[in-house]
Design brief:
334 residues; Murein L,D-transpeptidase; LD_TPept_cat_dom; single chain; Transpep_catalytic_dom; globular; L,D-transpeptidase catalytic domain-like; alpha+beta; transferase activity; peptidoglycan synthesis
Length: 334
């Protein structure tokens, strides 16, 4: 970011020497076109990837972290960098309606048309909410972004230096021919501990559906094939001649026989670990936020953060009682 600031300063000095003020449009153009830093390019090289290689993004609300993954030479994705998130808003759980301040959860897509170099929030790009799943459930909202400035009303808010780097990473992949960048947004990291602690949360059926997609990525380290039918996410393809309809019953699906057993095995192990944690006395809880959260590294560092009073106490743990939340039967072959 230091190089970016020096570049902007140089533009400003040049403009003054020419007898005219630098226009805001010039600064925004520089932000959007600023090259990736040498450190980032060196990191890509160390990970056996390049700035032109495809990108994938994963976000975790409870941990307030956003990961940028890059496709390596062997076709599998490698973790390039984990960015602490400056702000997200709402509660754990999906976005349901316009104005609910919920940061979405699910599988989304960034395209060239999603990029916003003229953002009021330094730089930004949309994640494609609502997607087919959201529309099938009648969910409303728009302009859900990953952006700069530590303020959120449903978006993933990063610092300005972070969004500068993330934006450039996404821009380079799109410019090199990646048609769409997958964004995987989760309530938390899908660990056995998190699943055990949140086992009675009313969103658990939905979260287990997301976990199945997350497990596909963990097993293959390749972009997850995502579809929607019967108002469910599916991670398989319809048979030739069939097609997926987000609200209609799912047709017979063809799952990858080389991958699915590994995914099922991972799920089985995780459920066994959850059962062990429950047997050891792990209490079921629900986290209640005043309005979202931020990564602890940013606590108190941004005086202009949105709704700072909502962040002061952190989330409140409410111990839950009652029968386990219903687990939706996953459409498909099993």
């Amino acid at each position: 970011m230091v190089s970016v600031r020096r570049g902007i300063a140089a533009v400003a000095v040049s403009g003054l020497l020419a007898g005219c003020a630098v226009q805001e449009a010039d600064i925004k153009s520089y932000r959007a076109l600023a090259p990736l830093g040498a450190d980032t390019l060196a990191l890509m090289d160390a990970k056996h990837t390049t700035k032109a290689a495809p990108v994938l993004i994963r976000a975790y609300k409870k941990e307030a972290e956003l990961e940028v993954w890059k496709q390596a030479a062997d076709g599998r994705f490698v973790l390039l960098k984990t960015y602490p998130m400056c702000r997200w808003s709402g509660q754990l759980g999906p976005k349901v309606r316009e104005g609910d301040r919920q940061t979405p959860e699910g599988f989304y897509t960034v395209t060239q048309g999603s990029m916003n170099p003229n953002s009021a929030y330094y730089l930004s790009f949309g994640i494609g909410f609502p997607n087919a799943y959201d529309r099938a459930w009648g969910r409303t909202g728009n302009a859900i972004m990953v952006h700069g400035i530590c303020s959120s009303a449903g978006c993933f808010s990063m610092t300005d230096p972070q969004i500068q780097e993330i934006y450039a990473t996404v821009r380079e992949a799109l410019a090199a021919g990646q048609h769409a960048i997958q964004v995987q947004s989760f309530p938390f990291r899908m660990t056995a501990e998190n699943l055990a602690r949140h086992r009675l949360d009313p969103n658990m059926a939905f979260w287990r559906e997301l976990k199945h997609g997350a497990d596909h990525f963990e097993v293959t380290r390749r972009e997850v094939p995502v579809g929607v039918c019967g108002k469910h996410y599916v991670f398989a393809s319809p048979k030739p001649g069939d097609k997926l309809d987000a609200t209609a019953a799912c047709p017979p699906l063809e799952e990858d026989r080389s991958v699915e057993p590994q995914v099922v095995g991972r799920e089985t192990r995780d459920l066994s670990d959850v059962a062990a944690l429950v047997a050891q006395g792990t209490k079921p809880i629900q986290l209640v936020y005043q309005d979202g959260g931020q990564n602890p590294v940013f606590a108190g560092r941004f005086p202009d953060v949105s709704r700072p009073e909502a962040l002061e106490a952190g989330p409140r743990e409410v111990v839950m009682t009652g029968p386990p939340a219903a687990v939706a039967k996953r459409p498909g072959l099993r």
